[in-house]
Amino acid sequence: xxxxxxxxxxxxxxxxxxxxxxxxxxxxxxxxxxxxxxxxxxxxxxxxxxxxxxxxxxxxxxxxxxxxxxxxxxxxxxxxxxxxxxxxxxxxxxxxxxxxxxxxxxxxxxxxxxxxxxxxxxxxxxxxxxxxxxxxxxxxxxxxxxxxxxxxxxxxxxxx
Length: 160
Fold this sequence. Notes:
- The protein is mainly α.
- Helix 1 packs parallel to helix 2 (30-37), helix 1 packs across helix 5 (126-147) and helix 3 runs antiparallel to helix 5 (126-147).
- Strand 2 and strand 3 (119-120) form a beta hairpin.
- The chain has one domain.
- It has a three-stranded antiparallel β-sheet.
- It has helices spanning 6-15, 30-37, 56-78, 90-96, 126-147; strands at residues 109-110, 113-116, 119-120.
């Protein structure tokens, strides 16, 4: 696994029980990730000496949450070009979706749609939207890898 992007490493730190998973729209600090994993220490002095992952059910739950958020962000990106509504009732969509598994667990909603930085998705600032897309894409990939979707991190896909 490549550990270049902090956004994906936070998910790994969480899965190893060394950090709480940040909200999908909350960036991580590289120093905090390095400290909780112990990357600057000898491996024998870190959690990586005998790594143990959180229960599969927890990893699955968060993978489903990130799939839902990732889908909503991608769907919203298409909306300006006429491929869908700018605002949706996300909980209603999730309840009736024929694909997934999708969930609104651990997702902040405003007026029934995805919240980004405390604002509903459609009027969210472009830079906040783009930052959230980046965070979610990388964490979704990391969670899929932790779930076992592919042995190599670079081979993990995040279809939405």
